Amino acid sequence: MEPVVHLRSAVSLIGRFPALAGVDLDVMAGEIVLLQGPNGAGKTTLLRTLAGLVSVVSGTATVLGLDLRHERRAIRPRVGLLGHATMLYDELTVADNVQFWVRAARASTVDAEAALVALGLDGRLRDVGVAKLSTGQRRRASIAVMVARRPELWLLDEPHAGLDGEAREVVDGLVRQAAASGATVIVASHELDRAQHLAGRVVTIVGGVIVGPDDADVDADRATETETESQTESQTEAETESQTETETETESQAEPGAEAEVHRVP
Fold first, then answer.
1. pLDDT tier at 196 (50, 70, 90 boundaries)?
2. 216: helix, coil or strand?
């Protein structure tokens, strides 16, 4: 069976910095994989690369059988990214946001309603403008968009951040349901105790490279040496995200899958 994610010596740059410095990774359909590593290790860059938002400059990289180097636009509508930013429209209500992005992705409006119910947004919050929501409520709305789109690959960056205990349990349940239905899930998290119970496999990234348990001590030295570079990566990545949001906002209006899917969270 062909893996959903297949990377061999994959390199991605943030500015001129190799945020991914030769990643090898295979993930199969239905897997839930925890991606762990220190700050600046490349976790967010890896997720954004798999979503088709960061270019692969060398190596082999396929997602859902499509070449990440040449077919990024075809990949985006089939992927959901829960990131650190949001593509919600502040001037629209919660329900209007979910329905807008579902229609843009040519998904079912029935799924939109089901997602609102699942995330507890079908009551009074349904008709509240996004600008008036708390951080946790905005995150739930963003998760509802992704759930309603039913992506084949879920990319979750700190999915539990900003959520209360009940909402965290809901998210975990939705992730398990998605995997049971055949979707593939990759979760980047620092909340290892919680995420490890959710995932079937743990993958560690250090200094832009996937490492195994036997490599941890060796690569710890590399992590120390590149600490300054990692801080530069985080800063540069934030600047790049800002630029990407501007670029993809226009692009996503013409091509809805660009960043909605791939929907990103407050």
1. confident
2. helix
Identify the domain containing residue 73 by its residue range.
13-258
Query: CA 118 from chain center: how many Å?
Result: 20
Amino acid of residue 59:
G
* CA separation for the pair 82, 259 (Å, rounded): 10
Q: Domains in the chain: how many in total?
A: 1
- As a whole number of angstroms, the distance between CA 73 and CA 223 comes to 33
* Averaged pLDDT, 24-32: 97
Helix axis angle, 227-254 to 216-225, nearest 10° = 90
Does residue 246 or residue 162 have the better pLDDT? 162
Contact between residue 90 and residue 246 where contact means Cβ atoms under 8 Å apart: no
Buried/exposed code over 53-75 (b: 16+ C-beta within 10 A; e: otherwise):
bbebeebebbbbebebeeebeeb
- The domain spanning residue 111 has which CATH number? 3.40.50.300
> pTM of the predicted model, to two decimals?
0.81
